TrEMBL record:
SUPFAM superfamilies reported for this sequence: Metalloproteases ('zincins'), catalytic domain
Protein name (database record): Oligoendopeptidase F
Cofactor dependency: Zn(2+)
The keyword Metal-binding belongs to this UniProt entry's keyword annotation: yes
Oligopeptidase F N-terminal domain sequence ranges: 71-140
GO terms for biological process, alphabetical: peptide metabolic process; proteolysis
Gene3D superfamilies linked: Oligoendopeptidase f, C-terminal domain, Oligopeptidase f, N-terminal domain, putative peptidase helix hairpin domain like
The Peptidase M3A/M3B catalytic domain, residue ranges: 164-457
Keywords (A to Z) from UniProt: Hydrolase, Metal-binding, Metalloprotease, Protease, Zinc
Annotated organism of origin: marine sediment metagenome
UniProt key word Hydrolase: yes
Alphabetical list of InterPro entries matching this protein: OligopepF_N_dom, OligoPept_F_C, Pept_M3A_M3B, Pept_M3A_M3B_dom
Amino acid sequence: VFKGTLADSPAKLLACLQLNGRIDKELGRLYSYAAMKSDQDTRRSQYQGMKQMLQQLVTDYNSKASFVAPEITSMDRAKIDAAIAQEPGLKIYRMYLDDILRTKAHRLSTGEEKILAQSGLLAAAPVSIYSILSNAELPFAEITLSDGTTARLDQAAYGKYRAVPNRADRKAVFDAFFGTFDKFEQTYGAQLSAQVNKDMFYTRARNYESSLHRALDANNIPVEVYHTLIKNVNNNLDSFHRYLKLKQRMLGVEQLEYFDVYAPVVEDVELEYTYEQAVELVAEALKPLGEDYVGLVKRSADERWTDVYPNPGKRSGAYCNGSCYDVHPYMLLNYNGRYNDVSTLAHELGHAMHSYYSNKAQPYATADYATFVAEVASTLNEALLIHKMLDTIDDDDVRLSLLMNYLDGVKGTVFRQTQFAEFELAIHETAESGKPLTGDVLTQLYGDVLKRYYGHEEGVCHVDDLYCVEWA
Ligand SMILES: [Zn+2]
């Protein structure tokens, strides 16, 4: 209907963008349903199939709508500005239009855009293969701990048992968990290499200097920001090593090992919370954000916006999905009852409230937010939670354990994320310079970064070669 007419009149442009937005919104909702159902139990093929159908539908639609960007770039900025002035309805699309104009040099012809849009279906393959193998089919090892507990070491169990007090158990947990991944090192290598090749394909097709340039350009962030982050974190690895040495001292071990880093530093502090207690605690801690906010936190629990507990086949980790614009945000947790899980709940609620308020206050066209700013809302909530805990708890051991947990959080958000960023940069640069990315190359690259961060050479924390398969 609209093809070839967008430059005709501001009214035509507006009508097209509105329809595009409506379809995009509904597709997002449908896809969320399929993807989240599938995450609840990745072994069920019914929802895998639904996801595939949606991927096909989205690809088809993107291919049909691929004329929009080229027609917009064919108008110059003056013409777009005039259109917005003439048609006030276009105002909410300014950001969208500006982004298309800003990235004009990387936009292709209508025919080329159509081919690129159709490649979306192929591009989704590495991630779906990875997810099914890791969450549903990987033959995780069973181990027996010193107290007689047997555990099948999948991702959720690894998250739980890597923090057991008994040192030999922790080593056994690490050996078994990474041993499983090590057996599939080359398969994982092929998957990650496929993912990097996908990035490289779009980078070259869109005439970007590197995958880093392309990835950051989506949010209009200069590459210097990325390099500066890595440089400054490397310049301050001493502080990270101080934290590791503190951990070593508190654990009372001669040599800190990589399998020690999740160990409890204070003996006999076993903080356990039911999910209901966790919601109460988090709601209490978030009081400074106002009654409305706290009410919403409670509502999210009452209305069951969250899939709470780990289950066989369930996707690992935690996330918040705020893309069902007309409904409410959804969350997925793997709640194990530890303080860390309470903190994760606070974190995901930060994303959920961010999405909720953004969706409520903004039209669909501007409601979404960039990953680059997303963690502000979530980490603030984590900080409010620890403040609340330290305010109300007097017991020294518990306080120590909480403070260490907070430092663990800083490790996670500052050092570990940058460590991952450095690894990602390294693998993309390796592939872009024409070198292979096999499983063992990936383990080598990851091991180099990991050992540097943990001060392996300086004797701060010893990292066993087996654990360098952690990238998988
Ligand atoms: Zn987050």
